[in-house]
Amino acid sequence: MDIRGAVDAAVPTNIIAAKAAEVRANLVNWQSYLQSQMISTEDCEFIKKFEKATSEEKQVILTQEGHQCAKTFLNLMAHISKEQTVQYILTLIDDTLQENHQRVNIFFDYAKKTKNTAWSYFLPMLNRQDLFTVHMVSYKKN
C-alpha cells in the first residue's frame, strides 16, 4: 500500500465517518449512569465489558450472550437521553453489525422473545433533532 492508500485508510473520507470517529473517541462514564440509577448494574457491567473487548472477544460475547447484548443496547437507548451517549450507543451497534452483518439477528431474536419487533426500538429515534443520530438509526450499509 502506498502512502496515499495508508492515509485514505486512516482518515475518514466523509462527514458521517468523521463524526463516528469523534463519537468513538468520547468514552462514556457508565458508572455515573449507574449511580444516578438511569441504567441497571447488569447493563452497566455488560457494556463496560463489551466496549473494552477485542473483535475476537466480542464475537465470543455475542455468541454466548447475544440476548444480553441486544437487551443492554436497547435499554441504554431507551433510558438515556443525552445525545452524545445515544450517538455512542448507535455507533457501537453500527460497528458491531459492520464486523458481521449476521449479528443483526441478535436484535430480531431479542425482539421476538419480548413479543416486539426490532424496529419498534429504533423508530422513535427517527424523531430526534440530531441528524447524526437519525442517520445512524436509519442507515443501512450493503
UniProtKB/TrEMBL annotation:
It comes from Ilyodon furcidens. It comes from the Eukaryota. Pfam families: V-ATPase_H_N. InterPro entries: ARM-like, ARM-type_fold, ATPase_V1-cplx_hsu. This is V-type proton ATPase subunit H.
